[in-house]
Amino acid sequence: MTSPIIIALDANYERSMNLAKSFDPKMCRLKVGSQLFTSIGPRVVEELCSLGYEVFLDLKFHDIPNTVFGAVKSSAELGVWMLNVHISGGSNMIKHAKRALDTYTNPPLIVGVTILTSLSDKDVDEIGITNLSKSVMNLSRLAKDNGLDGVVSSPREVADIKKHCGKDFITVTPGIRPTSIDDDQTRILTPKEALDNGSDYLVIGRPVTESPNPLKSLEQILKDIEI
Ligand code: C5P
Q1: 103: CA distance to ligand 1 center in Å?
Q2: What is the CA radius of gyration of the chain?
Q3: pTM for the structure as a whole
Q4: What is the C-alpha separation between 204 and 222, in angstroms, rounded?
Q5: Tens of pLDDT along 124-145?
Q6: Ligand 1 nearest atom to the CA of residue 8, by list position
Q7: Lowest-confidence pick of 95-109, 136-150, 167-181
Q8: How far apart are CA 101 and CA 107, in angstroms?
Q9: Do residues 87 and 62 touch, judged by C-beta distance below 8 A?
């Protein structure tokens, strides 16, 4: 699998399965987030895996260490390829998340959410974070120091994250827009720009899933990034 694209299935079960069946596991991985997971449950992950997809379970765990330990273990049991936790849950929570995978020979990757890519400087100021980029770097460092495989961040922050945490530290970047689209994502780049910045995986939702022809939109993105 060489494609860096992860398609976010933020839709209902029927639509998500139809999208998955119209794509091919060679073109992309699939992301199951809280909307799809809470509406249909673990079954959707199992069905996507049986279609041959590697699944990123995006439930952004953020709870006391013991609860996150259990949630990570349950995710691993589902056979997911990647899962995530909020880094702001702290070092002890992150260590518990990692420890939950100790018994697996082929464990899922765990990445940490730095700061949601929908938040602007003004938004983070409202929740008491005064310096967005400094906070992203601090959180990335905390994730790295406590054993996470990488982070979820804006594609604009990737170069700095790689500088602070090393080039092998995985960066998963939502906030990708093939052309300028006016929606709730604010810290955005195009797929090509994101890869040029060093992003390892590009999470793309609505530009593909809400396009009149999702397969064609995905094929166009793969063409743009020369895959
Ligand atoms: O539709 P769009 O391309 O904006 O989808 C982005 C996806 O990435 C959504 O599923 C969203 O939940 C997720 N995400 C994000 N920002 C993060 C982490 C995940 O946008 N920091």
Answers
A1: 30
A2: 17
A3: 0.94
A4: 12
A5: 999 999 999 999 999 999 999 9
A6: 10
A7: 167-181
A8: 6
A9: no
Tokens representing residue 218 in the block? 């995905």
**Distance between CA atoms of residues 93 and 48, nearest Å:** 29
112 lines ligand 1 (CB under 6 A): no
The β-bridge relationship of strands 55-61 and 29-33 is parallel
**Residue 152 in this model has a pLDDT that exceeds 80:** yes
Does the beta carbon of 192 lie inside 6 Å of ligand 1? no
- Tell the residue number behind the tokens 């990737």, with chain if given: 158
Specify whether the CB–CB gap between 205 and 16 falls below 8 A. Answer: no
List, in sequence order, the alpha helices (H) in the chain: 13-22, 34-40, 43-50, 65-77, 91-99, 121-126, 132-145, 158-165, 191-196, 206-209, 214-224
Q: Are 178 and 224 in contact (CB under 8 A)?
A: yes
**Catalytic residue flag (residue 60):** yes
Q: Residue 188 above 80 pLDDT?
A: no
Closest ligand 1 atom to Cα of 116: 21
Pocket test for ligand 1, best of 117, 151, 187, 202 (most atoms within 8 A of CB): 117
Give pLDDT tens digits for 35-82.
Answer: 999 999 999 999 999 999 999 999 999 999 999 999 999 999 999 999
Q: Is the Cβ atom of 185 under 6 angstroms away from ligand 1?
A: yes
179 vs 101, 120, 159, 188, CA distance in Å?
39, 19, 22, 10
Q: Answer whether 33 contacts ligand 1 (Cβ < 6 A).
A: yes
